[in-house]
Amino acid sequence: MAGSYPIGVPGQAWGATELAAWRARQRRQRSYSEDVVSAIERLGARFEVVQYGRIEYPPDSYPLFAVRSRDWRDGLPCVLVTAGVHGYETSGVRGALLFLDREAARYADRVNLLVAPCVSPWAYERIQRWNAQAVDPNRAFREHSQQAPESAALMRLVEPLRGRFLLHIDLHETTDSDETEFRPALAARDGKPFEPGQIPDGFYLVGDSENPQLVFQSAVIEAVRRVTHIAPADARGQIIGSPVVAPGVILYPFRELGLCAGITGARYTTTTEVYPDSPRATPEQCDEAQVAAVCAAIDHALSQ
Fold first, then answer.
1. What pTM was estimated for this model as a whole?
2. Within a domain: residue 258?
């Protein structure tokens, strides 16, 4: 598929016909209810489960759930963990659920935890980056966004707590399908030429260029290094086209780009990126890397 995409006319942005053709190609490949909702329900004995919205893409309808500390205390700092903003990024969803099940209890008396394990359930089921409107939710965390109800629902959940968050960590993956499917689709959708890139082999972090917190980012990298390998810089000193500012760390302007990690105004914010297609990592390692990143992020934030 390099350089082309089977929908649309090169150089012309998609209209309604192309969007319908793209949506018709999407097939349900796994179950949000079985994989995610059932796991959240099992956590209900230990945490408060909150339904914070519902996504309607008829005939499909998806409840959105967050898990929060049962013993919520107004005097404690708040920590937000998000995952599944891109539905195909599996280790983020599994890592968030694994963190809740195995590690969250040790932070019970130190932070208020709020975890949204799967922000984009339609995309999760279809192993897709975009929502049903061919919109990337991780470019739509902006006020009055109408095309990404997934993003708008999460922003409504978070808004009453803005200013109280110490940390927000958003769990993602970079995969080979970014280069073979999702970036070619993006170029076709927008009527632009596809420019091939290079997928980094290993874990890395994306920090906020407006608030980089490199000591924090490096602490997370060092913790994850004990679980899986860290992506090296390419020959130009970059990862996915951005300069490496510390080992395994690049920076994006979170709020300018409408990224999920920019919604809280927290002191510490980061996006994780694991590489599940690496011959040097297993799916289990990728899940564990996400858990290690969350724990290291909370530990560092609390130590300051």
1. 0.97
2. yes
